[in-house]
Amino acid sequence: MMGWVAATGSVSVEAFLMFALIFMWTPPHFWALALFMKEDYHAAGVPMLTVTHGRKVTRAHILAYTVLLVPVAIGAALTAIGGPLTLAVAVVLNLGFLLGALRIWRRLPGSSSS
Questions:
Q1: Given pLDDT bands bounded at 50, 70 and 90, which one contains residue 1?
Q2: Per-residue model confidence (pLDDT) at position 2
Q3: Which residues, in sequence order, are CB contacts of 113 under 8 Å at separation 6+?
Q4: In the predicted model, what is the mean pLDDT of residues 81-97?
Q5: Could you tell me the CA-to-CA distances from 53 to 59, 66, 111 in Å, in that order?
Q6: pLDDT of residue 45
Q7: What is the mean pLDDT of residues 25-29?
């Protein structure tokens, strides 16, 4: 957002949406990785969500953030920084991300990397 403000002299909806994209994408991305590395984070004393609240809560958070990411990505594609190609890519990639989050959320305790 600072770069946008420096270049344009104002904060716009596009700047906010670009910030929101990164903000909403980063946690589920790292939490998904943390599901596989929980013991390493625990051993290192890193208070990752998988360590502090467990895998079930982490999987629910991944799904919630991913669901919230979809309208942000679609919204960004519908602004001046988007376009038809951006919209198509946002729909396809977010559908894939959402399906992955649903698969992670449905995992049963005790299953591989649950």
A1: confident
A2: 86
A3: 35, 36, 107
A4: 96
A5: 10, 19, 18
A6: 93
A7: 95
Q: Tell me the mean pLDDT in the region 8-16.
A: 91
Helix axes 13-36, 84-105, angle to 10 degrees: 30
DSSP state letters, the chain: -HHHHHHHSS--HHHHHHHHHHHHHHHHHHHHHHHHSHHHHHHHT---HHHHT-HHHHHHHHHHHHHHHHHHHHHHHTSTT--HHHHHHHHHHHHHHHHHHHHHHTPPTTSTT-
Q: Which of 44, 28, 25 is closest to 104 using CA atoms? A: 28
Contact 105, 60 (CB under 8 A): yes
Q: Tell me the residue type at 45.
A: G
Tell me the C-alpha distance between 114 and 5, whole Å. 42
pLDDT at res. 110: 58
